[in-house]
Amino acid sequence: MEEVLANSADRPSRVVVVRGPVATGKSELLNGVAEQAEARGLTVLRATGLRAERRTPMAVFGQLLLHADRIDRPEGPGEQADRSPREQWEQREHSAAARVEQLLDDARFTAMLRDPDYEREEHVRAHVMRSLTAALHATAQGRPLAILVDDVQYADIPSLQCLQHAMRELRAKPLVIVLGLRTGPRAERPMFSAELLRHPRLTQLRLSTLGERATAEMLREHLDEATARRLAPDVHRVSGGNPLLIRALTHDILAHRPPTDPSLPALHALTVGDAYRQSVLSCLHRGEDSVLAVARGLAILDDAASDTTLAGLLELDHETVTLSRRALESAGLAEAGTFRHPLARTAVLDDLSREDRIDLHRRAADLLRRGGAEPPVVARHIVAAGEVTDDEALDVLWETATRARRDEDVSLAIACLQLADQACPRGARRSEILAELTRCVWRVRPSTVGPHLRALRAAFDEGWLTEQAVPALLAGLLWQGRFDEAAEIARKCQGAYEGTSAVSAYLAAGAVRTTYPALRERVGADNWPTPHGNVDGVTGRGSDPRSRAGAALNTVLTRGVDPHAADLAEAVLQGTPLNDANLEALTCSLNVLIYSDRLTRAAHWCDALLREATKLGGPGWQAPLSAVRAKIALRQGNAGDAVRYAVNALAWMTPLGWGVGIGSVLATLVSAHTAMGQYDQAMTYLDHHVPDGLPETRYGLELIHARGQLYAATGRVRPALDDFLTCGELMVRWGIDQPALVPWRSAAAEMHLRTGGEAEADRLVKEQLAKCGPGQSRTRALTLRVLAEVAGLRRHHHALHEAIEELEECEDRLELVRVLGALSRSHHALGELGQARMMARRAWRIARDAQAEALCEQLLPYSDGEVSAVDRPPASGENCPSEELTDAERRVASLASFGHSNREIARKLFITVSTVEQHLTRVYRKLNVSRRKDLPHDLLADTAC
């Protein structure tokens, strides 16, 4: 371009055509040409074609002449001396403007002329064009002339004819014509383009989008070198190399830059914001109508946008759609048939009026349905249109909701079900929709399930709710603690439905029977279905997971811990995927493992489920699973972890969404803070608002027991005893009197000991010991500890050693601290002060790591009020000696520390005596001890110093 301008005074006319997609720099190039031409002394005339003036005769040529008419010219000879220079110039100016206006009017007239005498018409038109060309050339005043026309594709035909005439007439003159031509789906003014090709000195330039290196160069104008180089790939990917979009993204980056130290280079991140959105719309509205229409079609159809579908939706021919999509890609707006960035699609959709958007979605739904598209593809448009036109559309919504739940797209499922609920008439089908909608909403927004429960209740009262949908209503009412309503519905169902299989099966399930045990009293024994909740009859893998898990839970809480029930629960966890229908079965199975003291396995499965719930999303999943994980951590003696998990659980759902289940979370928090000595914090959770029906649930039992623990820790013996005895009374009445759930007898026994009721304490603790079956290591350990306290520590010294062995199975650190503390007091009573101090110090260390400050305070007197150097935490970078032990060495050393012989250890661990001796030799060396009684007792329970 510089070469063309440099030789313009010595060479005949040149024509330069600059072609390119929208916003690729054509106007910017013409602006640069104008500046260079003026700097070289050329007379510059400029015009721009406007879409709105395509049919206005002489609109573009008029811009050139009227612009020329305003150029200052020097005074010429023959000016009248009696007039001032300004007056003389104004007179000339007025005269020239009048002549130009007259010529333009003539041109406009001839453009509209339709004379029957064709030769006469052509003669007049030729005369006018010669006059206009002469006027155009006269504006140069002997200097080279540069004519620049941008967006020439929008120029009116008379202006193009005059421009063609000027090219021919002035071909030998020093003239440069630069035309900006936007490429698009259809060639604009094809005859003019063909005429250009006849010019002997035609130069054509094609502009395209920029590459990544050029994008980086543009970024360097506003960003530092490192940031420009780092962001260039992403900016190029989003902008497609379109200069306008690159500038817009640069603006968004700078607008959202974080505050930094001015002396340091700014750290920027790619931010796609409002400037990019506006620039996308600018590109589209400056382009062809067909390109804008196709862009809107792409935004509506998204992934379903084929050329055929777009043509049918927009009522365009196939070729136009293909060319328009190609234009979008060449402009950097789209790639591979879709927008380069989601915000571009959002901007196009927002640019549509509500009526146009709904109409396009409605037409898209009909078009795709007729074309055999998959239900989810069609359903998205039905939902966006917000109306269901026929039963077939209703079928599409239901099928899509079913698939969406299976594919974990709960938001789509809810949207489909809500629209289906509005359109479906009362009856069996709407009952199914309502029940399914309630379950979906429960998962993502539990606190908003109320309106859906009211809709289910209204349908039940009106008599059109199907029997299969009643369990969803009952589950919601029970969770909210509305037991009177639930009992009323359960009684009515006995005569309202034939067979009442679904309702009976729900009420007879083990999970319902053990979680809401008071419901049976409200319904009445005559109306209560026969339970099928024991593990004996529900063991097959083909059985429903909910039935199997409920049977296992019912067995554990009504008949005692059963290894078969725990195995069944773990089988359910292993073979059942996490979804809305299986959540209750999975949480029941986790509770079975907890009550069976299989805490390590429970933690393993719960952590796996929490990871999956976090990946798939949904507070209705993460909240209850976090609550179960908090309970596991508490029973493992990890009070700090228990608080963390429980607080997370409360954060996932509002109290309204928690319903009666909040009792379990609050119980964990109260017990954990009590163990940590944070009594004021524990008391705040007791003041938390809870549903009225909470005391009639299993969760209520847990909270009453936790409150009793807090009262006991703060010296309120009588209220604590009342709470423990209340738990016992309810558990006996409800038929779930198992210490695995709430060990109320041992807790009450400890309170009786404080008030001098040794006999009652002895009776209670022996009853509890008799209920502890095989495998209940944690429950049996705490019962043995209290038994030793009741009978006198000196008489039951061996019971404490047995309790420690039991705790090695479940790793309850807090209970281990209590047992070691009792063993320390036992050694102290026997006069073995060294052993007493050693036990107390080791217990203190475990309590410290578990953040159980209250237990630490209780242990200090038996450690002579001080903690030895070995009990202090290791310095930074220092390893704890016990960490060097292998698992096998740790097990052998733990048994040896409690006085087991090598032969006994070999028998317990199924290894040879020689292997035991080898392990002990290495243990002594690693721990720097020389005899068994110097070995720590907590090697298995406290694996980190």
From TrEMBL:
Coiled coil listed as a keyword: yes
Keyword terms, alphabetized: ATP-binding, Coiled coil, Nucleotide-binding
Domain of life: Bacteria
Stretches assigned to coiled coil: 793-820
Record-linked SMART domains: HTH_LUXR (SM00421)
Region described as Disordered: 71-96, 523-545
The HTH luxR-type domain, residue ranges: 878-943
Name of the featured protein: AAA family ATPase
Organism the protein comes from: Streptomyces flavofungini
